[in-house]
Amino acid sequence: MKPSSFRYAVPTTLRAAIDIRAASEDSVVLAGGQSLIPTMNFRLANPEVVIDLRKLDELNYIRVGGGMVRMGAMTRQRVVEEDAEALAANPLIRETLTNVAHPAIRNRGTIGGSLAHADPSAELPTLLTTLRGTLTAQGPSGRRSIPATEFFEFIFTTALEPDELLVEAAVPVLEPGEGWAFTEFARRHGDYAVAGVAATLLVGPDGRISRARLGACGIATVPALLTECEELLTGNAPGDELFAAAGQVARDAVTVSDDSATTKAYRRHVLAGLVERTLKTAMTRVGVPR
Amino acid sequence: MSEVTVFEPDEPVVVEVEVNGEPVTAEVPSRMLLSDFLRQRLGLTGTHVGCEHGVCGACTVHIDGRPARSCLTLVAQTDGRSVRTVEGLACADGTLHPVQRAFKECHALQCGFCTPGFMMAVAGLLDERDDLATADDETIREEISGNVCRCTGYMNIVSAVKRAAELSNERG
Ligand SMILES: Cc1cc2nc3c(=O)[nH]c(=O)nc-3n(C[C@H](O)[C@H](O)[C@H](O)COP(=O)(O)OP(=O)(O)OC[C@H]3O[C@@H](n4cnc5c(N)ncnc54)[C@H](O)[C@@H]3O)c2cc1C
Ligand code: FES
Ligand code: FES
Q: What are the backbone angles phi and psi of residue A272, rounded to the nearest 5°?
């Protein structure tokens, strides 16, 4: 198994990368290669031009400030996971990333690669969606921001134009005392999950939930927001019964049909349990100083 | 310096990479995988190739000191980097790496096909964690879940990870 031959372009600036992207009919961008190279090895993808972003140091950064954690597209997943500042600002990022594949894959895989790949089973797109994060794209006509809730359009399909590159992903920092958790169920640790759930919980001085954010992977053609759960939780006092009820409400969010390994009914069952479990874990972290 | 270098499909890419401490300069096709380069060009056949899509872990090597799949990496991507393979684990005088000693002592292999990938993954793990000698089996199984073994049933591999951790803690 070998990739078929291609023109290989190695830009050293973002501008040059965009120019060559805009000038090529059939190009792909190579980031960490952890999703792209398997498809090239199997010749499911036979691009004419491969644009390797490995020299774009300008896309390799983590910046915390202005209430946001900003990650350059070429930042390796593992580097973000190990970043102390990002951890302090938003510990949900690390918890989410440790569920992505295996360390050897995350050592190479990038933030931008996972998001641009847009697998609805993937954890990182779900994190961005749940936290209402923002993606930044850059093309020949400049930069634009795209809310995560509009970025993911379908399986492996995003709002990026063919001549645009993803340059940055940003998620808000968590509030002091906000609870958080990511939980998933996979048949083998590190595999793509049957389903996964990201959640944050903010509890007000009156003891009621003032903000709940919930999203799930593996259950739809895009990373799913569990808005009905969010609505059910907000304004109510947290507790096991409420969390169980939220799990039941979540079941209807499963829209993917049966596949070779998992029936829809089973996935609904798994999701209900995961929502409940994730909320309980998030609750244990509410009010805990970070 | 030009802002982009373009190689035509039949044009070789010049790669300068350090392999097991030795500088290597080679002209390679841009589509050549690191796994094939190591095995076919350098004769380092300790790096095994199983699935060629990232799932089995047999081809695991270190790139800049971190475990990575050589089947999911173009050699061209390693230009200016360092690569370590299983052949580079032992010291030059033949003293085995703690992971190699542990796999031997604990009989953590049968056919040996998965072994180089496991050892590179575990060697990377030991660089990151110093608590594995006392970790429970579940933790260890999670840590090695990116590598597949069709023979051993993993029991002895889990023991070997603990033993390797002990040996490398002793070594300090
Ligand atoms: C065995 C295995 C298990 C895995 N398990 C999981 C898992 O459980 N969860 C999970 O989320 N992922 C999993 N992955 C995928 C992994 O997380 C990839 O790293 C990730 O999806 C792609 O990141 P990459 O940097 O390797 O991108 P690449 O493979 O280089 O690129 C992926 C796609 O994104 C495009 N792209 C990359 N960067 C940009 C950019 N800046 N702008 C525009 N387009 C871009 C590429 O053209 C390509 O189409 C797994 C992979 C393997 C091999
Ligand atoms: S051959 Fe590379 S992971 Fe299987
Ligand atoms: S020893 Fe045979 S595959 Fe692991």
A: -60, -45
Superfamily per CATH, domain B98-171: [2Fe-2S]-binding domain (1.10.150.120)
A8 CA to centre of ligand 2 in angstroms: 23
Cα of B147 vs centre of ligand 2, distance in Å, is: 9
Residue range B33-60, pLDDT digits in tens: 999 999 999 999 999 999 999 999 999 9
What distances in angstroms separate CA B106 from CA B48, B86, B153, one per listed residue?
A: 21, 18, 13
Could you report the predicted ipTM of this complex, rounded to two decimals?
0.95
Ligand 2, atom 3, residue with closest C-alpha: B54
Q: What is the DSSP annotation of B78-122?
A: GTT-EEE-GGGTS-TT-PPPHHHHHHHHTT--SS-SSHHHHHHHH
Query: How far is the first Cα of chain A from the last one, in angstroms, to the nearest whole number?
Result: 48
Name which of A151, A121, A117 is nearest A136 in CA terms: A151
Report how far residue B98's alpha carbon sits from residue B89's, in angstroms, rounded to the nearest whole number. 9
Please answer yes or no on whether A8 and B77 come within 8 Å at the CB atom: no
Q: What is the fold, at CATH topology level, of the domain defined by A7-52? A: 3.30.43
pLDDT tens-digit series, residues B73-122: 999 999 999 999 999 999 999 999 999 999 999 999 999 999 999 999 99
- What class has domain A60-172? alpha beta
CA distances from B22 to A76, A170, B148 (A): 26, 40, 30
Count other C-beta atoms under 10 Å from residue B4's C-beta. 16
Ligand 1 pocket (Cβ < 6 Å) reads: A 28-36, 38, 73, 100-101, 105, 109-110, 112-114, 116-117, 122-124, 160, 165-166, 191-192; B 54-55
Look up residue B141 and give its DSSP letter.
H
